[in-house]
Every structure is written in structure tokens, then in C-alpha cells.
Write a structure and sequence with these properties.
240 residues, mainly alpha, 12 helices, 46% helix, globular, electron transfer activity, iron ion binding, Cyt_c-like_dom
Length: 240
Amino acid sequence: MKFAAISWIGAIFLCATSPTAAQTRAPDAVPAFKKLDSVEARVQGCVTCHGQQGQGTANGYFPRIAGKPAGYLYNQLVAFRDGTRSYPPMNYLVAYLPDAYLKEMAEHFAAQRPAYSTQQRSELSAATAARGQMLVTAGDPSKGLPACIACHGAGLTGMEPGIPGLAGLRPAYVVGQLTRWKVGERRAAEPDCMKRIASRLTNEDISAVAGYLAHQTPPVNASPEPSNLVRMPFACGSQR
């Protein structure tokens, strides 16, 4: 009822607008995000934190969501809405949004290709950098750890339909998410391959992966790779 009331009031306002002004202003002159019936208008709550094109904040506090697979973004929005992933601002923002709305939002940001934000890089010791490179590019067979690129793509841009890109994420965000998976605060559809992987990482491993990723130059092409279940080392519920 609240939304209906807003729309009704908006309609009265539009009807009361000067006909001359409405006729002289070309439709294309109105920014998409100001048009009432546009996806750009509907995602204004998202862009407040994640940027107008989902590029994330310059300091990396809010992660890049642009270009990530639509399936992944949709799964996260559903998880925030249903409470299986916890971050109060996001839980509140999407609490009452239907599946169709969440899919539209996910598809919108998945289609965006803004430039990567420049981030500050902290120094890494040679040992930490080497460990991070090993885990990201080759894995650690002795611990049953596959390479990150086996699922997240050679360019770390993710894989359709449900694996996110890791390029351009700040170290603290990566550490936070891997730690949440390790302790069971973050979950994905079963079989939860990330839970299986994170549980085998030490805190030092997590820091090494995050640090190494932050030192990589983001690829020119930010598009995720096509689905390749044969290449994946584990069955992953997010790829269904």
C-alpha cells in the first residue's frame, strides 16, 4: 500500500507539471536513474555504497559487484534477504524484495563493466607473497587445496553462473569472507565447496591469498569465464 501511495502521488505531480516544460524536454535528457520505471532507479539503494556502476569504493571498503555472474549476485541477494548471510545494512535493504526484483538487480550489475578502482597495496614479505602465489595459481596438494584459479578463472574474473571474480577486492574483505566461511558464519548451497576449502586454510594462508590477490593487476576484460564443470576440482552447489 505504501508503494501504491507513492506512485499515486507521483502521478499527480507529473500531471500537474507544466505541459510546455514536458514538451520541450526530450525524454533522453532525463537520466535513467531519475525515471520512475527503470532498473537504474530501483538500484539506487545499492549504488549508494557500491558505486553507480557497482565498481566499489575507491578504498575498497564496499566490494566491486560489477561484472560478477548474475547467478552469484542473485544467490547473495537471496542469502541477505533470507538471513543466511549476515550484514545488517544489506539484510535490511532487501528484506522484502521478491525473487524477480532481486534477479533484475543481479542482471543489471552483472552487465556493468566499469574500470577497476585503484587501491593501495600493503607490502608483502617474500615468503607471504610466494605462499599466496602458490595457493592462488597451483594450490597445495598436501592439504587438498585446489588453486583459486581452477574455479575463479585464470584472470580471477569468476566463472558463470555462480562463482565470483576476485580481482580488485581489498585484502581485508577477502580475509573477512574466507574467515567467515572457515568458522561457519558464511554458507553457500550444498555441497559448499568454499566451506571445504576455507576449513583447510590456516590464518597465515588466508592472509597470503588476500595479499597476493591485492597485488595483481586487474585484467582488461572483466567478464567471467563460461561454465566449466569438468575443470572444477570439487562439486559446487553454486554452479547448479
